[in-house]
Structure formats: C-alpha cells, structure tokens
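Retro notes, item 3 of 5
We never archived the inputs for the adenosine-5'-diphosphate complex last cycle. Fixing that now. Sequence and ligand:
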Amino acid sequence: MKILFVAAEGVPFVKTGGLADVIGALPRALRSLGADVRVVLPCYGQIPDTYRQQMTDLVTGTVPLGWRNQYCGVKQLIYDEVPHYFIDNEYYFKRDSIYGCEDDAERFAYFCRAVLEMLPALSFQPDIMHCHDWHSGLVSLFLKTHYAAHPFYQSVQTVFTIHNLQYQGIFPHPILGDILGLSEDYFTIDQMEFYGQVNYMKAGLVYSDRLTTVSPTYASEIQHDYFGERLDGLLRHRQKDLTGILNGIDVQSYDPYTDPDLYAHADDLLRQKQINKRRLQKHFRLPEKERTPVIGMITRLTAQKGLDLVLHVIDEIMKSDVQMVILGSGEDRYEQRFSEFAKRYPDKLYVRIGFDERLARNIYMASDLFLMPSIFEPCGLSQMIAMRYGSIPIVRETGGLRDTVQSYNEATGTGNGFSFRNINAHDMLYAIHRALWFYQNPQVWNNLVKEASQMDFGWTNSARKYKAMYEDLKKMEDVT
Ligand code: ADP
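Structure as it came back at the time:
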C-alpha cells in the first residue's frame, strides 16, 4: 500500500499549527502498520538549514501553469524513516511567510501541479494521494482534468482531509483559466464555483474519492450551517464519503519524562510539575506560590479560539487566586488587548506574543490548568498535549474538544477535565471556578492529573482507521 501525503506544512520542517503536527506524526504511525507512506511539502525558505543541508536533489523539470512553464526541482530527505519530497522553486516558496501572500492562488496551484508533474519521475507510484486542507485541494481536481488520461495516474485514488474548514483558499474567478488552465465549463455550482469565486477547499471536497476530518464531532458539526462555512450543503451531499477520525499526538515527542525542552525532570509527574511551575513563575517574574493554580493558554490569537470569551471576563478571572500564562500570536487586536491586561495584572498574568515551541512545552508542563474555550475546534491538539503533561483542560464542548475531554463528575469521580457547552463567557467562568474549587482538594486533583496524563492519545488507533479506509478504497478500485 503506497500513500503520498500532500500538505503545506509538516513538523519538523515548518509549522504554523496542528496540521504540521499531524503531517509530522501520522505517516510514521502508518508506516509502522506496514504502509509505505511518503510526504511532499513545498521547500520553503523557512526550513532550517540543518534539514536543508541533508536534502538530496532528485529531479528537475518544468511545470505548466496557465500559459507559462515554471521551474521545479524535487529534493528528498528521509526523516524518521519517512521519505519526504520537497518541491523547490524559490520564487514561490522563499517568502517572509508561508501563507498570506498575494499570489497564494498561484503558489498552491503550482505546488499541486508540480507534485503531479514530478511524481512519474520519482519511481513512486502511490495507490492513494492523501491531501490535506485547501493548499492541496487542487490535486484531485487536476487528476480528474489535466491528468485524466495520464497512464501513470489511472488507478490513483484520492482522500482529502479537512483540518480546518474556515480556511478555504477562495480566489477571484479569472484564476480558473489564467492559473488553473480550466475552461468555464468548470465554473458551476457543483464544481468550482463558490459565490462567484473559485474555492480550492471545495475542489478537494468535490473531486476526492473520500473525505475525512479530524474528529467525529466536527464531522457532524460541519454538516450544519453554523459550522459549515457555506460548504455544509456539499458536505451533506457527500455525507456517506465523510468520516471523522480523531487526531493523535506524537507521544514520543510530547513525553514529559524525556522532553529535552523542559526546565527540569523528575521521576514523578506531580513532583515534576511542581518544580517546573516554580521555574516558570520565576522566569516570568510571577510570585513563586506553590498552591496558586497556574492557567496556561497556548494558541493562535484568532476568534476561533474563544478569546473574546476570555477577554470578556478576564477581570473576574483575575479576582481568584490564580496566575495565568498566555503564549500566542495572531490578530493585532488580541495581541494588544492581552498585552494591555498583562500590564494591568503584572503579578497574575504573563503574556508572551510570539511562536515559541520550547516555551510552549514548558507552559504545558508547568501549568495546572489549560484553557481552550474554542468557538469551534476541528480536533485540537493542545488539550491532548496539556493532558499528557498533567495540565487539566477547561474546554468548550465542540469538535475534538468534546471527543477528548470528559468533564469531571464529582458523584462518580470520573472525568479528565472541565467543560461548558454554550458560547457564553459566564458559563466558561463557571467552569473555571469549578476547576479552581477542585484544585483545592489535592486528592481529587491528583487523581484528575493521573487520569488525564494516562489517556491514550497516541496515533495507533487513528492510524488503523486511516489504513482501513485506504484498504477499502483500494478494494473498490480493484473491483472496478
Ligand atoms: P490549531 O491547529 O487550530 O492552531 P491545535 O490545537 O490543533 O490548534 O494545534 C496547535 C499546535 O500549535 C499545538 O502543538 C500548540 O502547542 C502549537 N502552538 C499554537 N500556538 C503556539 C505558539 N504561540 N507557540 C508555540 N506553539 C504554539
């Protein structure tokens, strides 16, 4: 079984969010189940030199894009036993940021086309091309159009995974001909047309053989208009091809006992949390109080993450005996408001604007609680990492948060976190107060930490589900 993952980011080469974590971990999990999984990524300027120096050049060629032909080189690096290919074109991929460029329509159309152009020269013929999010949505479209008669691709099947339906890659109508090289026949509501524009995510959803998303709850949520981002009709139409498979986390990398980025290690998780909490408080010049609970947040600063709920009641949160540590980057308005609050509460609230993997790991380790009140959350990895590091999540019951966090039930003593249902700041505040209340009871709390940190969030179960789906698809191909 040969699978090619096509994605725009992947750990350890380039990461802006959870997609990169998935691309960095799922292929390895699938390989350990016997599948030959490889990954193809753009060769961004941001990839650290240590990896660049290990890459070898495989092939070069040109890629047709609209009326032009663009240069393409393919490099290879085997990382953690997973062969990675990198599509190299400095004009497209040596930029200050990996997304958000004016010509993203062209950059990612080029990427998808380049993958399909180059693959026959790589002596790797996948049974399945597994594409992730809008950046690779055009692969399935191109396979059914420009490459429909190409002998190399006759038996290739496609899977498209939605990691976040909110980001769709929507571009003006003229790119259909100018960049994608397709006629107006494709500009219909059941194909590429999306409210007068062209939508790359929609291409993935229309033309791929199977669709998945990253949690069972999100799979059902996105079929409703509130979460469906104007694609819910199409998703309902493809309901029988759509499944939700929960993401895992890389349990080797996120292992509190061996994580080299942590301030300190100990044999016992509770003790280790205590030591790291002290260090974190010292580092951030917060009072070094052992019994004051620390609430952590590590997040993209965007409305999706429920930040307005937090801002709405932050003064009330600060009235409790707590400390809060927030690490995030994103929209200016959130960066500014959280920074202002940090100045107002220097003894209680520490805010670091930026993306810092090492600091993130130390916050997971040192915090007692992890706040993630997302408005929607396709899966969410942060709550799983937090639990593994013994930081108890407080979440809104949506998407993957609902599928991974069970609110503590004092009658039965079961649960691994705290949750609330409505998009309501005071419901969130109540959940926080409830968590702080139980924090005062070491017996309850230590059990919660134990329960949460022992949850199995590894990739094996999910990898098995993906593998079963690939096998099912291949069986269907063999029959036809
Ligand atoms: P999303 O993909 O929507 O951003 P996830 O919870 O699925 O959310 O994944 C977020 C990942 O990115 C986690 O690994 C989290 O630790 C990491 N992360 C988010 N913001 C930061 C940051 N500012 N610095 C370091 N890591 C971050």
